[in-house]
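Need a sequence for this fold. Nothing fancy.
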């Protein structure tokens, strides 16, 4: 029934956008009428009160205020408009104006965007931001435009941690026989396969029930996502590995962005930058808060796993197939220089 509702909603949305295409997308030369009004939909796959929701609300508030009502933005959280992959297709085709899409979710379009989500690629937030806000981030934005996406900003999700119901995870060997849920992202699947887990793919909205029913034993996500989605209610063990850094690509259909007049483009970009700042501040504050809250929610929390053993179990060459060896090597070189300075 839920799937049927999603399909009907998406079909209706597509018909409305096609029917109102001139009002929504403007002309293709970036010379739109300053009196033209817009109604944009913004979708993402997590709860409304998640960090993506913080970014979405910040963006909506600024754009609507700065445009004096020219632009109206409707926010659709929790996969209301479809899965992350389905929403990416909608943005790509122009059926959906904007999305807060995970970096890994864009692998099918821009494999290079997964470089920061490789296991243990970055050690902290500052390193991640240095990559995304620098030349490599600019290069990734350019690749996205070639595929029909305008990346307005790189908002934050944070570092992933492992939860499970089998045993405390202190080293890779502890993952043997543990059924770990992964999103349908080749890099995540490869990483946990290398670490020795049994990997199952599953939509994020199905994870809680999958854990509750024993279909899967564990999962990995940032602390905020673990708490906000009540994962702690159905898991016994938490391990602080910081193995993946997750960011979100705040994307808009590129043709839509290019059709906007320069003033509106500037408003959109400035609002997205503020959304980026808000998400980064929120994530770092929440990480500390969530760890304090979750200390009483798990049977055991492993705070000092053998990270060196985890890192040694990873073969980066295996990821060249999914991400590209050149971008991996250049990112590693950039980070080596960044750490040295």
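Here you go.
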């Amino acid at each position: 029934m839920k799937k049927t509702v999603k399909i009907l909603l998406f079909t209706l949305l597509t018909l409305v956008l096609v029917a109102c295409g001139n009002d929504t997308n403007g002309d293709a030369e970036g010379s739109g009428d300053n009196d033209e009004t817009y109604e944009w939909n913004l979708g993402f796959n997590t709860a409304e009160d998640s960090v993506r929701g913080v970014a979405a609300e910040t963006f909506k508030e600024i754009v609507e205020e700065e445009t004096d009502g020219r632009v109206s933005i409707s926010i659709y959280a929790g996969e209301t408009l479809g899965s992350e992959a389905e929403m990416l297709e909608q943005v790509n085709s122009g059926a959906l104006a904007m999305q807060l899409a995970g970096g890994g979710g864009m692998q099918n379009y821009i494999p290079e965007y997964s470089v920061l989500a490789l296991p243990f690629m970055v050690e902290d937030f500052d390193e991640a931001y240095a990559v995304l806000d620098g030349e490599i981030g600019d290069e990734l934005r350019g690749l996205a435009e070639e595929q029909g996406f305008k990346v307005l900003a790189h908002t934050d999700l944070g570092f992933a941690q492992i939860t499970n119901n089998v045993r405390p995870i202190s080293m890779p060997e502890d993952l043997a026989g543990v059924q770990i849920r992964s999103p349908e992202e080749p890099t995540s699947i490869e990483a946990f396969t290398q670490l020795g887990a049994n990997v199952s793919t599953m939509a994020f909205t199905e994870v809680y029930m999958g854990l509750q029913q024993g279909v899967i034993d564990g999962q990995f996500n940032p602390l905020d996502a673990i708490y906000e989605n009540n994962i702690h209610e159905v898991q016994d063990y938490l391990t602080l590995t910081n193995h993946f850094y997750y960011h979100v690509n705040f994307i808009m259909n590129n043709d839509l962005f290019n059709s906007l007049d320069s003033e509106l483009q500037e408003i959109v970009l400035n609002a997205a930058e503020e959304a980026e700042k808000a998400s980064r501040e929120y994530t770092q504050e929440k990480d500390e808060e969530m760890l304090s809250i979750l200390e009483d929610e798990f049977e055991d929390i492993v705070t000092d796993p053998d990270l060196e053993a985890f890192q040694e179990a990873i073969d980066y060459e295996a990821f060249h197939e999914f991400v590209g060896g050149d971008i991996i090597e250049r990112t590693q070189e950039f980070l080596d220089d960044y750490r040295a300075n």
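For context: The CA atoms of residues 56 and 275 lie 7 Å apart.
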